[in-house]
Amino acid sequence: MHDRPPVDITPDILLKAYAAGIFPMAEDADDPTIYWVEPRARGVLPLDRFHVPKRLARTVRSDGFEVVSDRDFDAVIEGCAAPRRDTARTWINARIRDLYGALFDLGHCHTIEVYHEGRLAGGLYGVSLGAAFFGESMFHEVRDASKVALVHLVARLRSGGYRLADTQFLTEHLSQFGVEEMPRHIYKRHLAAAITERAEWGPPDQVFRGAEALAALGIGRAEA
Question: Into which family does the record put it (predicted)?
């Protein structure tokens, strides 16, 4: 259990929390309260060492998915909040949805949408602050859709001049892409530097081809 006194969290407070290395979660979708999290070890994706497995690179290059950004925030967060096979609970409650929806309207929250045969097959969302990006959640309805979203996300971050990609935690799933753990005090130094710089997310709702994303990551055809 967590000590969670009620707090009126505004988008401005939420951005200040991210700048301090703190992010919110809820116990489950039905719990209206929010608590703050500050991990002792932070999951960080080194943008210059992002690893794309060869099979995934071939999938990305094949353009079997249509990938865009910032097209449908509501559908993406709905997908992220849906129960999954490995767990019936979600940490995304109504307040989380509203807060990140407000950040989206302010240009501080972004989505990657992945479509297959005209339907949303997967995606992710996260927070952008200066040259730091904080990945929040991802989902997939079709195999590899969330992985394709991640590849396109990192391509955008690299192309836009981002300096820090925060995954919050290190998981077995994320480790295959090169995500590492960083002690809190070191993470905060990187965070403080990144949020003072500028980065560009890029045009919304623009279709990016797989070859373009891989090229932004320095992956040529021979490597895929």
Answer: Belongs to the L/F-transferase family.
